[in-house]
Amino acid sequence: MGAVAADEIESFCVQGEDKLCTIFSHIGFAAKYTLATIKMIELVKSRHNTPRFRHNLVVLNQLTAAIGVLDDVLEALDYTDNNSVILMRDEETVNPSLNLSPFILDENALSGQQNSKLFFFTSREGKELHFTLIDNLKDTLNISGENYPLVTELFDGFFHKFLS
Amino acid sequence: MTRTPFKFLDAYGKADTEIFFGREEEVESLYQMSFQTNLLLVYGVSGTGKTSLVQCGLAGKFESSDLFDITIRRKNNLNDAFCDELKKHDLEGSFEADFTADKMIHSLYLDYLRPIYLIFDQFEELFILGSPQEEAMFVKTIKRLLAAELPCKIIIVIREEYLGHLSTFEKSIPQIFDKRLRVEPMSRANARRVIVNTLHSEKIKVTLSDDQVAETIIDKVTEGMGRVQLTYLQVFLDKLYRVAALRGGDKVVFDNELVNEIGRIEDVLRDFLDEQLDVFALEVDTKELGLKWLKLFVSDKGTKIPIKRQDIERAMPELGRLKHFNYLQFFVNRRILRPLDSDQYELIHDSLALKLSQTKTAGIPMPLNVPAKQLPSNPFVNFSSYGPEMAELFFGRDKDTRELFDKVINDTAVRSTLVFGPIGVGKTSLIRAGLMPRVQQLFRTGYLALSRELFELPVFNELFLSPPLKQDPPRFLELFFGEEGKTLSTDERKILIIDQLEEVFIWVTESAQLEFFYRHLAHLIDGHYNCDLVLVIRDEFFANLQDLESFIPGILEEQMRVKHLDRYGAAEVIRRNLHYAKFDVEGEPVMDRILQNVTEGDGKVNLTFLQLYMYKLLST
Questions:
Q1: Is the pTM of this model over 0.80?
Q2: What number is the ipTM of this complex?
Q3: Which CATH superfamily is domain B396-561 in?
Q4: Which of A27, B14, B499, B579 is 20 to 30 Å from the Cα of B614, by its Cα?
């Protein structure tokens, strides 16, 4: 792509803004939801008390993806899925929520690490699943069943449900 | 001097990713860790390339749009340096006067929309020079940054011997040790890749004559064993390049012949020391001072010895703390010194110690003239000895005086000097008429001749023979050098001479009192009051010093034996003194006759006889 002349920059910006407005007029609703990684969910139950579910999570509502995020805890009466990346309507509860895994996954949830490292599914070759790092669209993660068998299991579940 | 394309002693930066090799594994680990924490710790021994790993290796993994890295060094105060560095990047002028570090970072992020990586390089400086308050304030800042959920990561780069100091941080920042990477010295296989890839890179373009050359270089650098010191490797490649470039030709070629011509790594390091001292002279202080300072790291036998930082400061207190720090920083950064555990430092190689031990430093020059005094008409001293008042007439001991001056004044590795010799050899005259009139022109000098009368004085007993108090400084030091209403200065160098030390062994018979005496002297040395101690003793009491040595272990290290004057020396004393008294010796037979009269059976000139004889001769 050729260089942009200085006097064209403003025009390009305005054009870009117009295009973005069109896109966001359709997907702007997404801003009402919060993306979060759910790591391990613990059961908190003592005698005479209603059980509660402690979700170890990372709220991902920053522009810079996972840079600088902190692990947090959410206790709720409902529970969602372990090691998942979900969209929440309300940061105080996991119900309702939409589980995006395994199409979006957080490697740090799978490996028990702090913080977050989000990948999205890009392709499948034989038994190998390919993911790309959201931060830079460059780094990849290949899952073959030997590493992170849960992801393979989840994909197999989808295949059985929709394709069999 | 040919400029070489190697990084030499500088760390690799973002622009050097093309020539940064051999650390792929570590870079990948660091990169992966950066996703798993907001606080990373990179540690390793000096010279392993920690800074390069972060500033070149890790930075190279990110697109420039994904990384806004800010490197912070302590300078005078880490908290101030941190804020100053952040302000430097506020090109939009968005900071407000009351902004704390977290607000500044948030503001920078809004201006640049790039994740911020704060790299605290050479973090050990906080523990070397910082105060507890500075440390506490910094911990507070870091804690607040981490809790603020800012788009920012913190990387602390520290020498591993200071890792333990971070445990005080752990109370406030429990995750500080969670994600850490140790940078190890490089393996042979990786070093080979570094050599081959670096030399073949576009920036450097050196041809290797064959595959074996890289191996030969590694053998030279490792001296046939162990892992590869990157500093040595860089120094060696740099030298090879310069020599190869001198050969001329279109291409720079490294071959086995050239590698062998360069010699051993120790030869290269010795040249390297010279070059670094030249840089020292340009950037820091005089070469002379640099050399003298480095000599502190050399033992009497010309080998390297580790020294604690505080002992370096004590050995040359006249430099002051800041100069010591600057020197230390320079020589550590230029890889002449290597930091060890427990705040100790040593020369990187024994070859440097040997070179330093063979290099003479001029030191403080001895004043040639002595203050003019009213002199007596008879230049000989009869039974007595020469004192400062007759220094102008003290002949025949120029060489001894100079040697003693150098030992006392310029050889500061040990702060005590032992002067010994047989009875009647002129030790006291050498001290009082040779050394003292010269030293007194430069430093405050105290002189104490021990005697039976002195031991009978209650005040002497109290000062030297009673149990030493945990007083700081010793009272006898105050007596010699103290000024009313002022505390004794440790900045000012002092010289204390104790003559006729043998008297203490003759007259002090109680072992407890002797021990107190030793402890007083030991306290003078150990207390680091910037006082040099000169002890003068007769030969036959030398053995008694063994006990004193257990209190002052270095007491025998710096010594000078005063020998009898030979006939030529004695003749000079006679001739020059007679010349002063406007007499002359007519012919050699007369001089021979005089010398014969003052020479003992063993052929040695007895100076007491000489003085007595000449005094009488002149008086009649």
A1: no
A2: 0.86
A3: P-loop containing nucleotide triphosphate hydrolases (3.40.50.300)
A4: B499
Question: Taking 50 as the threshold, does the pLDDT of residue A148 lie above it?
Answer: yes
Report the first-to-last Cα separation within chain B, whole angstroms. Answer: 72
Contact B73, B83 (CB under 8 A): no
Q: What is the DSSP string of A41-89?
A: EEEE--TTS--EEEEEEEE---TTTTTT--EEEEEESS---TTEEEEES
Contact A115 B37 (CB under 8 A): yes
Q: What are φ and ψ of residue B421, in 5° steps?
A: 170, 170
Which residue from A70, A108, A113 is facing B149, i.e. has the nearest CB? A70
Tens of pLDDT along A75-97? Answer: 999 999 999 999 999 988 999 99
* Of the options 3.30.930.10, 3.40.50.620, 3.40.50.740, 3.40.50.300, the CATH number for the domain spanning B23-183: 3.40.50.300
Q: What are phi and psi of B604, to 5 degrees?
A: -95, 145
pLDDT in tens, B158-175: 988 889 999 989 999 999
Rounded Cα gap, residues B573 and B608, in angstroms:
13
User: Residue B455: which of B465, B446, B447, B445 has the closest Cα?
Assistant: B465
The amino acid that residue B542 corresponds to is F
Which residues on chain A are in Cβ contact (under 8 Å) with B109? 64
If you measure CA to CA, which chain A residue comes closest to B31? A139
Contact B281, B239 (CB under 8 A): no
> Which residue in A70, A117, A138 is closest to B35 by CB distance?
A117
Give the up-direction half-sphere exposure of residue B263: CA atoms within 13 A in the CB hemisphere: 9
Give alpha helix (H) positions in B285-429: 287-294, 309-315, 321-333, 350-358, 398-405, 427-429
CATH of the domain spanning B267-358, picked from 1.20.58, 2.40.50, 1.10.10, 1.10.3470? 1.10.10
Q: Which residues of A touch B58 (CB under 8 A)?
A: none
**Mean of per-residue pLDDT scores for chain A:** 91
Cα separation, B103 vs B109, in Å, equals 10
